Amino acid sequence: MKVNENFNIAEQSFKNLRNELVEEISKIDGNSFEMTEWNHQGGGGGIISKIRGSVIEKGGVNISSVSGKFKNEMIGKIPGTSNENPNYLATGISVVLHPLSPKIPSMHFNTRFLKTSNEWFGGGMDLTPALEFEDNTTYHQGLKSLCDHYDSTYYDKFSKWCNEYFFLHYRKEPRGIGGIFFDNLNTNNWVEDFEFVKEVGVYFKNFVKKTLLKLKDLEWTKEEKEIQLKKRSRYVEFNLLHDRGTKFGLETGGNIDAILMSMPPLAKWE
Fold first, then answer.
1. DSSP the chain
2. Is residue 98 among the annotated active site residues?
3. How far apart are CA 123 and CA 111, in angstroms?
């Protein structure tokens, strides 16, 4: 299978998932997404889909397919890059949902396909509850079952990676309750790697639908909202200081609104 065919297949899959997520979330929330197209300075572009609704206080479902050349400071840090070949192709989907209710966790997901002189998948999903999340065990068991279907080592490896990645070292605390995180996924079986990445997206879509329907109508207090706003401050700190997607977008001239889509609408620091 040619590389361009791989890229096109991954790109279309991300677009399909984006359409499904937008439809499901809009139906539950009762409000529509606002969509904005943007062009990348190197080539390609994407679509920002934003919602400010009654269930999702602020959310975004973004897709992009871009090309260009890495700046000198990025060469060598990205697999397959060199001074002779700084070119890249990248396509992906990124989702962040900040619910109005503090009883619903903030939910993050992304999957991507990158090509330099190498090619690989990356992505994952994680949750950031403000309050105790009753479905924590079920959530992780579902991810483990998904991972085990493809490789019995995936869950332990990817959940550990997630816990280490989404960690505020200077505060000595995790951003949330984890999930899975992976990068540079290339087992020399493109079809199987692609199927795994697709299934992560399906799991996230189904989890979002189930969680929103279950928790959206529960009552919450002013005190619980205060806890949520303070927890969101950790989300902001991580995404501005550590998040690789933020850094990649800024380094490659991405759209600022799309890059900072992950910021919550309100947050508090003591």
1. --HHHHHHHHHHHHHHHHHHHHHHHHHHHSSPPEEEEEE-SSSEEEEEEEE--SSEEEEEEEEEEEEEE--GGGBTTBTT--SS--EEEEEEEEEEEEESSTTSPEEEEEEEEEESSSEEEEEEEEEE-SS--TTHHHHHHHHHHHHHHH-TTHHHHHHHHHHHHSEETTTTEESSSEEEEEEEE--S-HHHHHHHHHHHHHHHHHHHHHHHHHHTT----HHHHHHHHHHHHHHHHHHHHT-HHHHHHHHTT--HHHHGGGS-S-----
2. no
3. 4
Identity of residue 184: N
pTM of the complete model: 0.93
Which tokens hold the place of 30?
């009762």
Q: What does the alpha-carbon distance between residue 56 and residue 270 come to, in Å, rounded to a whole number?
A: 25
Phi, psi of 111 (to 5 degrees): -140, 150
Q: What digits encode the pLDDT tens for the residues 62-118?
A: 999 998 887 776 777 777 777 777 888 999 999 999 999 999 999 999 999 999 888
Annotated catalytic residue: which of 108, 140, 169, 242? 108
